[in-house]
Every structure is written in structure tokens, then in C-alpha cells.
Specification:
Blueprint lengths: L2 E3 H4 E5 L16 E4 L8 E2 L5 E2 L1 H5 L11 E4 L7 E4 L4 E2 L3 E6 L7 H10 L1 H8 L9 H5 L2 E3 L3 H40 L10 E4 H4 E6 L15 E4 L4 E2 L2 E2 L5 E3 L1 H8 L9 E4 L7 E3 L6 E3 L3 E6 L4 H8 L2 H9 L11 H6 L1 E4 L2 H40 L1
Parallel strand pairs: 3-8, 4-7, 13-19
Antiparallel strand pairs: 1-10, 2-9, 3-5, 6-7, 6-9, 11-21, 12-20, 13-16, 14-15, 17-18, 17-20
């Protein structure tokens, strides 16, 4: 198969940022200005910031035509999307346009670039500011089959991505169903339609305590180390064990003497992505960072408490009590004062049974999602190496 460098196939330019101190570069601007955060799918259809013609002329920003591939080269590396509009970008994004009169599919190059994400991140980790320079990007070797074959590859990959997206949408629908069922069964703390007791989290927990405030030294020796969780490991109401870090046995003994997470506890994210809680569903020994708080239920069902803490009403209370500038932070005192509805235990258990049924459905959907993702990864390896 023929190989070409990316620069042989495409014109590649970087973007720029007009001076923030010059209001005339930004006020009433009508030129879309794309940042890394705008790359959330295959296509970029809108911007959340706009610059003026004067701002464009007085910066390194360039208007890129619809159909340009965007590729992040600074901080967050290897994110890829295709412009659905004419727009410019900041300097953290390279614009990649197929050269005229070449039989090269934009979507094919898009998928090729997605296949390089792990590679560019490995390179970026060796650089102080986590970036790759344009010369590396331009030197990428692209396998180049006939145009008809490129189109077939794109069609197969698009269909696989559609299956992945469909499975992810099913999981999100199931999560929304749980939240809707909670509101249906228990109403609001403000209206209290069913006349249930209103209590604070401190009332229903024998312990509300956060993890260590000291920044740990991690170990690569997983065999002798102990798992150490932070708020980053609590995702969508579950503990994600796939990327946890490890600490030494000596540090574990020190931390575990202060706080011992156990099955049935809730872990609540109190820094960063705040107000998300997960139930500890294992007897495994682990430690937690200050970004997590343990809520240990007493005389209340753990699954019900999980639903209450993850409800929109608790989130509203958490949001109103966030402290600090920059990284959001929930203080333990505010967590303890958060109010929830507390129905009779039989009704709490009925909600638990509903959640368990939903969880069974999620297991099946997650299995199908994992299979689709595995297929996509194997296809990307097959086509792009």
C-alpha cells in the first residue's frame, strides 16, 4: 500500500488568540472562534466565543473553511473533529485541509488522526507543557488506499460509531429513568407532597468524613500497594476502578487508621466534579483523598440514600454552598446540612429493587457497548496500524 506524509496530502496551519485586553477584538464579533472544549463529537457545528474582523487581522487566527479537520496539539492532545462551519481556532488546535485535486477522503483522514491519539499522548508526556510540534504532525505517515476503499472504510467505521453512540444513549436513558422514578416516588423536599420526614444528611449518617489532606506519593508496585481513590474515580454514580492509583503499604496504614471505607458507604465527590455519589459495593481495602467524603448510612437504605444524594434537589443545595474560587469545593459542614426526604424503610427498599432491575439492564447494555468499542478499536488497528 502507498504511504504519504500528512503534509503531502493536506495544508496544515495553527490558530491564534486575539488579545483579551482589546475589547474591539471580541465585542460583537461574528467569526466563530473554536477552542478544545468545542470538540465534543465528530463535527463542530457552533462556537461559544466569537471574534471580530479586527481581532482576526491582529492575531495569528485564520478562518478555516467548512470541512477542515481540527486536531488538538497542546494540553489535551489528539482530539479530532471536522468543522461544519467556517471558523477560526486558538493556537492549541491545528487546522488540516485536504489539498485540491487529491482523491483523499476528509472522513478517512479524520479517522486516521483519531488512531494516532495514543501515539501523540505518549510523545506529549515527554514535553513540559504536554504538546506536539507541527513538524511531528506533518510527518505522520498515512496509509493511502484507493478512494473507493477509503469510502468503504469510512462507512464501516461510521456504522460502528453509530452503534457505540446508540448504546451510550441507552445507558443515559436508563440513568434518567432512575432519576425520574426517584422524583415520582418521593416528590420534593420543598413541597413534600407525600408528607415524609425531612432530615439532614448528618441525621441519617453516623459518619461524614473526608479523606487525607496530604498529597500522596504514588507507587507503581500494584502488588504491594493499596488502591487510592479520588473524585476522578467517581463517575456517573459509580466507582470506576479502571484507572485508580496506588499508594505504599506504609502510607495506607497511616491513612486507614483514620478512615476505613466499607461496603455500603457512599463516596461523595466534594472537589472538582462535585455532588456525585457512588456506593461502595466491595469489601476490598482502599483509601481516599480529600476530594472524596465518606457518608456512612444509619437507619436508612444505602441505595435510597444514593438516589437522594444524586438527586437534582441535593445538587441544587450543593451548588448553592460551593466554596472557593477556581476548583469548586464542598465543605463537610455544608454536606452535613443538606436536606433530603426520608420515607418509610419499606418504600426505600422498593426504590432499591427498581434500581437493581435497572442495573441488570445496564449490565447488558454495557456488555454490548464494550463489544462495539472492541470492534471499533480492532478495525482502527486493522486499517491504520
Amino acid at each position: 500500500m502507498e504511504f504519504k506524509t500528512l503534509s503531502e496530502l493536506c495544508d496544515i496551519v495553527s490558530g491564534g488568540t486575539p488579545s483579551r485586553s482589546r475589547m474591539e477584538f471580541w465585542n460583537n464579533g461574528d467569526i466563530p472562534w473554536i477552542k478544545i472544549g468545542n470538540l465534543n463529537g465528530k463535527y463542530v457545528e457552533k462556537a461559544d466565543e466569537y471574534i471580530t474582523k479586527v481581532g482576526l487581522e491582529n492575531s495569528a487566527a485564520k478562518v478555516l473553511p467548512k470541512g477542515t479537520i481540527l486536531y488538538t496539539i497542546f494540553a489535551t492532545l489528539g482530539e479530532t473533529a471536522i468543522l461544519s462551519i467556517d471558523a477560526c481556532t486558538n493556537q492549541a488546535i491545528a487546522g488540516i485541509c485536504i489539498k485540491d485535486n487529491l482523491q483523499v477522503s476528509t472522513d478517512y483522514i479524520y479517522y486516521f488522526l483519531k488512531s494516532k491519539k495514543k501515539f501523540v499522548n505518549n510523545i506529549g508526556r515527554g514535553v513540559a507543557q504536554n504538546n506536539i510540534n507541527m513538524s511531528i504532525l506533518k510527518a505522520f505517515k498515512v496509509p493511502l488506499p484507493e478512494y473507493s476503499v477509503q469510502s468503504e472504510i469510512v462507512d464501516i467505521l461510521d456504522k460502528t460509531v453509530n452503534i457505540i453512540n446508540m448504546r451510550q444513549a441507552e445507558l443515559e436513558k436508563l440513568d434518567r429513568l432512575v432519576k425520574a422514578r426517584f422524583v415520582e416516588m418521593f416528590g420534593s423536599i420543598y413541597n413534600n407532597e407525600y408528607g415524609y420526614n425531612i432530615k439532614t444528611l448528618q441525621d441519617v449518617c453516623e459518619q461524614i468524613k473526608d479523606g487525607t489532606h496530604q498529597t500522596p506519593t504514588y507507587t507503581e508496585d500494584k502488588g504491594k500497594g493499596f488502591k487510592f481513590l479520588s473524585s476522578k474515580d467517581v463517575v456517573s454514580g459509580k466507582i470506576d476502578w479502571s484507572r485508580v492509583k496506588y499508594i505504599s503499604a506504609e502510607l495506607h496504614e497511616e491513612l486507614y487508621s483514620r478512615i476505613k471505607p466499607k461496603r455500603g458507604d457512599l463516596l461523595l465527590a466534594k472537589n472538582g466534579t462535585t455532588g456525585v455519589a457512588a456506593i461502595v459495593e466491595t469489601d476490598e481495602v482502599f483509601d481516599i483523598y480529600v476530594s472524596l467524603a465518606i457518608l456512612r448510612p444509619v437507619d436508612i437504605n444505602s441505595v435510597y440514600l444514593w438516589g437522594a444524594v444524586n438527586s437534582m434537589e441535593s445538587k441544587r443545595q450543593f451548588d448553592e454552598s460551593l466554596k472557593g474560587i477556581g476548583v469548586p469545593n464542598l465543605h463537610l459542614g455544608e454536606i452535613k446540612k443538606t436536606k433530603i426526604v426520608v420515607p418509610p424503610i419499606q418504600i426505600q427498599k422498593a426504590f432499591e429493587q427498581f434500581v437493581l432491575q435497572i442495573d441488570k439492564s445496564k449490565v447488558e447494555v454495557k456488555k454490548a457497548l464494550d463489544e462495539a468499542q472492541l470492534l471499533f478499536d480492532s478495525l482502527m488497528q486493522k486499517y491504520f496500524g
